[in-house]
Amino acid sequence: CFLKHNKNLHKLFPEIPTGENLTHIFTCALQKEVLYHGKLFLSKNHVCFYSSVLLKDTKVVIRASSIKEVRKHNSALSSLSIQTADGEKHSFMSFRNRDKCYRLLQSMRSHVQETSLNSSPPASSVENDMDHDQVSSQSSFEETVERPRLTRSNSINSNSSFPPFQSSSEGERKCRSE
């Protein structure tokens, strides 16, 4: 199971490093002008979507480091969206286990942010002043944007690594890594 899906990830998305293994796969649909039913692949550093409908391949690759926000939407449609730092927004729906996917995406985002904060060198005083100006100019905008509340039930400890694959009956496929 694991090897098949992991090979498929690397075959469909050759830009993903071969050492980066698949952690989870979800069946869902990408919302564009029409719904593209396919698979959402999660690895440590990437979120990838693939669909092949009517001989048209649709691919989306999102680096975990570029994820700005993950939001849940419409429970009836079981949808969520991912917004990237460069302003792109990708909406996915028809998850059988949206909440689990949401928690994993939030965990990826938190882990990448923590890693980048811990590995970045201290900023100079000029850079600190520039960062302060950017935060100040964005703070009024950020106050008007509704943010999802993180509670104990919808957040994951970002110190934990991704769990290995396991079998599941809820539309999500998981495999055990060796």
TrEMBL record:
Identify the stretch(es) annotated as Disordered.
112-178
Q: Compositionally biased, Low complexity: which spans? A: 153-169
Q: What sequence ranges are listed for the domain GRAM?
A: 7-74
Polar residues compositional bias: what residue ranges?
Answer: 112-127
Annotated protein name in UniProt? GRAM domain-containing protein
